[in-house]
Amino acid sequence: MPLKVLCRPGEGRQRGTLDDGGSRGCGRCLQVVDTTERDRALAELDRERDARRTAELDAAKARVSHQLVLNECNQLRQELERQQQQLDLLR
Q: Measured in Å, how far apart are the chain's first and last C-alpha atoms?
């Protein structure tokens, strides 16, 4: 979408676009820029950052959970070995 140039009444060109040969109007005109694509890209970037943050938290939780299960497994393995040793002594 082209840039719009809006001038106050009586000052240079009334309305026009900047893509019509490079004329810039009176010099004190308000330039309005369509930022729809920029806003959409920034919103997408925010969503991607949130998704990444969520994924990183989920991965951290999974690592902690995995470590807890490994610790429990090792404790159970050690307990099983102790029980087997006691059983061997009783035989």
A: 89
Q: Element (H or E) spanning 7, and its range?
A: none
What is the pTM for the complete model shown? 0.55
Q: What 3-state class would DSSP assign to 55?
A: helix
Token pair 């989920």 is at which residue?
58
**Neighbour-count burial for 51-85, b at 16+ CB within 10 Å, e otherwise:** eeeeeeeeeeeeeeeeeeeeeeeeeeeeeeeeeee
Map 18-48 to HEC letters.
CCCCCCCCCCCCEEECCCHHHHHHHHHHHHH
Q: Does residue 14 contact residue 7 with C-beta atoms inside 8 Å?
A: yes
- pLDDT value, residue 8: 64
- The full set of domain ranges for the chain reads 4-90
